[in-house]
Amino acid sequence: MKKLISIYVQKNATKLVSRNFLKLILVVNIVCMSLYSFSQDIHFSQFYNSTIQLNPALCGIYNGTYRFSGIYRNQWANVPVNYNTAKLALEYKAIQSAKTGNLNLGLSYYYDKAGDSRYTTMLPNITLGYSKTFGKNISHTIGIAINGGIIYKQISYAALQFDAQYNGEFYDANAPSFENAGITKNTVLDIGSGLVYQIEKNKKWSLQIGYSIAHINRPNYSFLGNSDIKLNMRHSIHGKFGIALGKKTSTQVQLLYQRQDSKQEFVAGFIFKNQLSTNLKNSILLYYGPFYRVNDAAIALVGIEYNSLNIGFSYDVNTSSFLKGTNTYGATELSVQYVLAPIKKIKLDKSICPIF
Question: For a Cys-Cys bond, which of 54, 256, 299, 350 suits 267, CB 3.0-4.6 Å?
Fold first, then answer.
């Protein structure tokens, strides 16, 4: 009887240790991915709706004075180490001049949380940019910008389980883990910059090409005080080409290539647009299309533009090596944009009308 009990305890102990060990390995891998892998540097499937994060030079490249935007991403919701990422941004054309160009300002805030360790990244950011539009039948726009912010990182070890906390019979959360956890918070300065060029002909077709570089100063990204662990620079090249297919239909090609150290990402897709209403008061446009992130995910997009309001929803179907862990479920994203152009005051002519 004692032998049977001993065998039972050993088997269950092995299962418990194995389960906790696998959980620990998974969490450590997720943290390492966040530290070293480009794939977890804050990114969105709807990258074109996260303008300042894509390229700070896109700040102010829109028709209007203010642009409010927000985007939320939930990734790997059916596994215990899912990612939750959000971004809020406000852009403002502080100075607008047809002769000298525009001075553009941007404020943004990024938030990301992942896994049992509650690995959290926050980044408040300020963008300063300049843009100039010229040309008549064919308009050309150039933009340049720089941004800077503070990356705040935090990790919690409270919810993590280690094999040393198994006392031979059961898991004891109060037992020491004997792990060198290091610090739990870190704050570093982050700097980026970008360029963009856009050409458009009478709303019949348009082309935009941009380049940006993030983490120019390569901030230290270690919780253990290791000065050799740097956040590598990320280079991004993006482009889009749109063409009108008719009075109420158009299509747009979107491309994005990013590289950080040896890690890279390539996303391509089509957006089809149908004008549903074009009366004087309201304009309603429906858009949809497929995207593909190479070796990672197939993406389905649908959205609607109602006057100055743009709402987009996308869903990622996982095609990566993590397919078995996610059961093909990738991520959902919701984006919102609103452009505001203040009404210009009309100066009244107070001169006295002549009497005839």
Answer: 256
| Tens-place pLDDT, residues 110-134 | 999 876 677 889 999 999 999 999 9
Domain presence at residue 348: no
Mean pLDDT, the chain, rounded, equals 82
- Other Cβ atoms less than 10 A from the Cβ of 145: the count is 26
Burial of 197 (0-12, 13-18, 19+ CB in 10 A): middle
Task: Return d(Cα 278, Cα 148) in angstroms, integer.
Answer: 41
End-to-end CA, the chain: 122
Angle 263-185-25 (CA atoms, 0-180°, nearest 5)? 55
The number of distinct structural domains making up the chain is 1
Among 63, 156, 54, which Cα is nearest to 102's?
63
Q: In whole angstroms, what is the distance from residue 95 CA to residue 129 CA?
A: 11
Q: What is the pLDDT averaged over residues 257-261?
A: 94
What is the model's pTM?
0.79
Q: Which residue has the tokens 């001169």?
A: 351
Asked if residue 189 belongs to a domain, the reply is yes
**C-beta of residue 177 within 8 angstroms of C-beta of residue 206:** no
Domain with 230 in it: 2-340
Is the residue at 349 inside a domain? no
Q: Which tokens in the block code for residue 323? A: 């397919």
Bridge pairing between strands 297-306 and 329-340: unpaired
355 inside domain: no
Give the Å distances, CA to CA, from 13 to 9, 59, 168, 171, 279: 6, 57, 7, 9, 71
**Cα–Cα distances in angstroms (integers) from residue 296 to residues 71, 100, 299, 330, in the given order:** 20, 44, 10, 9
Collapsing DSSP to helix, strand or coil, 33 comes out as helix
Contact 212, 236 (CB under 8 A): yes
Tell me how far apart the alpha carbons of residues 217 and 213 are, in angstroms, rounded to a whole number: 10
CATH of the domain at 119: 2.40.160.40
Distance CA 256, CA 276 (A): 29
CA distances from 65 to 50, 62, 197, 335 (A): 18, 8, 19, 20
DSSP H or E run through 117: none
